[in-house]
Amino acid sequence: MNDATNDIDVYIQAATRDNTRRSYQQAVRHFEVDWQGFLPATADSVARYLAHYAPTLSVNTLRQRLSALAQWHLDQGFPDPTKAPVVRKVLRGIQALHPAQEKQARPLQLDQLSRIIAWLDAGIDDAKAQGDTAKWMKAHRDKALILLGFWRGFRGDELTRLRVEHVQAVAGQGLECFLPQTKGDRNNNGTTFKAPALTKLCPVEAYLAWIEAAQLIDGPVFRGVDRWAHVSVNGLHVNSLIPLMRTLFEAVGIDYADQYSGHSLRRGFANWATSNGWNLKTLMEYVGWTDAKSAMRYIDTVDPFASARIGLIEESGRLE
Description:
Elements: H1 2-14, H2 18-34, H3 43-53, H4 59-76, H5 85-97, H6 110-130, H7 133-152, H8 156-160, E1 167-170, E2 174-179, E3 191-196, H9 203-214, E4 223-225, E5 231-235, H10 238-252, H11 263-275, H12 280-287, H13 292-296, H14 306-316
Antiparallel strand pairs: 1-2, 2-3, 4-5
Helix pairs in contact: 2-4, 3-5, 6-7, 7-9, 7-11
């Protein structure tokens, strides 16, 4: 009987993504420790909690805190206080009195991608000439990460969860990779993504070069490299992607480097695709979105005069 119970606990644990589990734990801790609330909570205490943090936390963060509290009560067999009318009314009032524009990562543009890859290619050549193996390997890794992240529209956590044994790449043809779990895959069936080989800024070529440089045969694709050129057995943590990218972009000379994040690659690809005639359905299928509203958050409003301006620039023979 105990073994069966343990098995059930294992499967329940597996049903929740690690990131979600951690964020829920942090939210419950915030309610109990930071605010010094009591669990199980009453609807009145949850409403007072929301009102207390309304001036300092975004509505989206407060919603996430409510979801965590709701899940805790359900898991422990208590009534869910977050569904009470007073809690819902307080949340609506906060949204009305504290409107805030949703912060979005700055999308990486194709010309910026070209500049970054040219800078990394130069770094690869320089490091090879100087015999700096660690720098040479890191440049190969970063090149593969940026190109694969852009052309596949991957989230940061998806990049860090890629495994060598789940990737099949053929030079000059393409790449196919399997992710056992993705955000839109609620049934955990796994999702297969494909990327084409390109004549320029090729993700397949960059991936194969990194795998060969690091001599990887299995395990995480993207890993840390120390100053002695030792490759870590562990994959990069998702929280390390933002400082890695911002440091790289700043070194290249990309403006507003501190406004980029792991979502910048995904947003950049979405904007490139829509500006090149992809319809929303095609983009959603390629990237793996299941909700059109979510997809639209990644796409900047199209400038209706952009095509006319491009035509004028081409006619005048000038590139800006």
